[in-house]
Amino acid sequence: MKLPTWDLLICTIPHRHARLLELLADLDRQVTGLFEGQSPGIRALLYRDNLTHSYGHKTQALVNASEADYVSCADDDDLFAPDGLARIWLALQSRPDYVGFCVRWTQDGQPKLPVEHSLRHPRWDNGSDIFRRTIMQFNPIRRDIALDGTWEGGYEAERRWGDQVTAAGRCKTEAWLPEPAVYWYRESTADTFKTARVPMPPDAILPLPAYPWLTVLTAEGSV
User: Sign of the CA dihedral 184, 61, 162, 69?
Assistant: First the structure.
C-alpha cells in the first residue's frame, strides 16, 4: 500500500526569524530520524512575506499549493513534542480523515490549561479544567476535506474555516492520540497577531536555511 503524504503548512514573517529557526531545526531532526535518508513522506511548505498578506491569505495559498494527502498548520513559534511527528505519522497509516491530539499550551513559558483537539468535541468549549476544540488547523486532515472550508482574514479565521469543514459533513473518522501532548502551543503575550509592526528593510531580512523537505513560497512565488 502506498504510504500517505503529509504537508506541514507554516506562515511566517521576517520578524519571527529566530523562533522559526528553532521550529525548522526541530522538524529537521524529527523528519531525518523518521525517514533515514529515504524520500520523506512529511514535508513542509512555508510562506514568508514582509507583512504583505494576512494569515488567512497565506494559509489558503499553502493549502492550494499542497499536493499531499494530508495537511496541517504549524505556527512559526510553536514546536512538536520530541516524538510528535513519529506518533502522528504512525496514526496516518490508517488513513483517517483527521488526527486528534492533546496540546500543551504555555503562555510566556508558564503552563496553562490542557487542550484537546478532537472530533469527539462538537464545538469549542473553554472549561474550567480543560479547553476543548473540534476541527483545528494544527491537526492533520485530509487535504480534500480541508478544501471544504475557505481561509479568510480577520480574527478567528481558523474557527470560521473549521466551522465550514464541519458543516460539509465529510470529516468523520479520527485517529486519536491521547496524552502526552504532541503539539506545543507556545503563546507569547508580547508577540501576537496584534503586535504593532512595520515592514523590515529588505537588507535586514535574513535568509532561511535550506532543507530537502522544505519548500518556501513568497508573494512572488516559490523559491
Answer: negative
Q: Are 2 and 185 in contact (CB under 8 A)?
A: no
Q: Which domains does the chain have, with CATH numbers?
A: 6-222 (3.90.550)
Record the pTM: 0.96
Element (H, E) at 25: helix 17-35
C-alpha cell belonging to residue 142 = 485530509
The whole-angstrom separation of Cα 164 and Cα 158 is 10
Task: Check residue 133 and report its DSSP letter.
Answer: E
**Residue pLDDT, tens place only, 141-176:** 999 999 999 999 888 899 999 999 999 999 999 999
Instruction: Provide the β-strand partners of residue 43.
Output: 7
All residues at 6 or more sequence positions from 1 whose CB lies less than 8 Å from its CB, including other chains? none
